[in-house]
Amino acid sequence: MKEYDLAALAATTDKELAAAITSPDGRRLVDAAFDQLPQMFRPEEAGGLSVVVHWVLSGDRLYEAVIENNRCMVSRVPCHEPQLIMTMASITFIRMVSGRDNPMKLFMMGKIKVKGDLGLAASIPRIFDVSQFADINRS
């Protein structure tokens, strides 16, 4: 697999990011971004949440984040009933988790579709520290 600096890639143009995502290694690139959610998770902000979030991304990508016991676990094989389903383009996901785009703005622009617990959806930016995205990529 080609090595990507995800934070640097998130800062590129939509055309460059789309080319990377649709490349032969594109699925692994999006997987790598999703796999960072546990390191970005802020249990002190989650307030004891026990929830399941499904992320439906373009390119037939479906991911699951389970938040319970002050931990966040992710899977590419969802097996729990979600309280929240967030649907978006893979580009939007990478821009959101990298902190390049504001999730509320993306939602208001219709780039993120939400089904389920809207209060939980509004808390996602608070419980995941996107400033950690670049640091994780450098380790």
Automatic annotation (TrEMBL):
Task: List, for all copies, the residue spans of the domain called SCP2.
Answer: 48-128
Q: Which Pfam families match?
A: SCP2
Please give the organism: Streptomyces phaeofaciens
Q: What is this protein called?
A: SCP2 domain-containing protein
Q: This protein's superkingdom? A: Bacteria
